[in-house]
Amino acid sequence: MKHDSGLVRGIDPTVTVISKILVIGFVIFCGLMAKEAGAFFQQVSDTILNNFKWFYLTVVSGVLCLLIWLMLSRFGHIRLGRDDEKPEFSYRSWLAMLFSGGMGIGLIFWSVAEPMWHYAGNPFAEAGLSNEAAQTAMRITFFHWGLHPWAIFIIVALTMAYFAYRKGLPLTMRSVLYPLIGDKIYGPIGHTVDILTVAITAFGVSQSLGLGVIQMNSGLNNVLGMEISVGNQLIMIGLISFLAILSVLSGVGRGIRLLSEWNMLLSILLVVVVLAVGPTRYILHTLIEGTGDYLGNIISLSTWSDAQDDSGWQNWWTAFYWPWWMTWSPFVGMFIARISRGRTIRELIMGALIVPTIVTFIWMSVFGGSALKMEQEDRLAHQAQVESGVLVGEAAEFKGGDVLLATKAETTSAVFTLFEKIDEGFLGQMLSLMVVALLATYFITSADSGTLVLCTLNSRGSLEPPMVLRVVWGVMQAFIAGGLLYAGGLKAVQTASIVAGLPIAVLTLFMAISLMKSLRQEPGILPPAPARQPVPKSEPETEDDYQPAGLQPEPAPVLLRASGE
User: Facing residues of 534 across strands?
Assistant: First the structure.
């Protein structure tokens, strides 16, 4: 039941109280015993990755295939809402919010760093720091940030939006199980699903905020000389969380939408500037070649499990990424569902799968490609010094250029080192400040969209959760991020998130089964059966000579209980 009066009106007390106790207790554990917690979750996550890597690979690739099939199938025209319902947001606003809520800070954090790590060495290139390593580095980066992670988000978004807007169920994770367990979603099973979703979402968002301010501090240190310290990072968390609370109080239609549109405009400006002043020709070639290379190898990449060498590389990267994205899927998926009412299944899959992937490829090509070109130039300059005898002995070994060495020293500084390489003067500093501004706005959109999702779950799927709940979760996220940052517990939360990915992967399977079961019961989804045709015979016709030429399933009732009250 929900409270119907006072400040807590509309709040589900079971989910709200237990989830907060769970979150606070976990944060205290990770904060006070950061080292022990990190070691424990690292051991558990290593065990899971070693034994269930095949499961993650199968689930994620299977979900992608299912979504592509749905997009092209007869189910694609089904609207997520009434048949005559129009979308709440324009395509521009919708796509901007999709991208801001889905990738945001992570793209900035890894757009230079990940290609650099793969350039240093990966299983698909015979030698690191080579042209072959550069090509495979972009292929792997595209794979980790392309169709597969968005497929994980979309299956959650599609399933939740379908049952909430089409079938009248609450916009919560428990609703996706209705075709499988019926009204039991309003009991202990449903409570457990929503509580775990709240906890995983709170950890994921708070960790992202912590990592975001670390990178912002690195950028401000690079440009303005601000000291890199936990104190400055805590101040940034407090300030930006305050702005995020103001944004979430204004609602999706204003605060989050306007910030997301600003994010997209600033992102486009940054890409255009770097494309213009950077190695333009190399970037464009990298985009075209990398996209083709990715598409040509997508099946083998999706199913490669390093069975022969079992080197551990995949556990550090692909098999780490998939459960990592899964822990983000309740948050991102629910946010996408919240803004997608009125769109068709085909629109949602195309818009959230294809468009963000293309934008991601462009982003990665511009920044990752620029970094790779700088590395190649540094390698050639190093080789020239070796040939001229300037560098001899151990110094003659090329260990990487400026960007790669900066990435190995501190991942957050990778993109700022790239800008220094592009221009050491005013332009480089302006690019760094633009990234810091972009990090801040992505920080705010991640925080307020995360707060909105947490509040929706706590209020049994309400699209307009109570204001007091929005403030409480906004403040809690800031304290969680700040507390973990101060105590050094971010690493423990990161490894714990991988552990949480396993039950989410299992839930994802049930989602797909539940969605398909309900879609096949949609009235009118199949064409009417053709008229019965007589079977030609030389003898006189009888009633038994008429056979049905097609079958039409009996339409299922259109559900469903709207609440558990």
Answer: 546
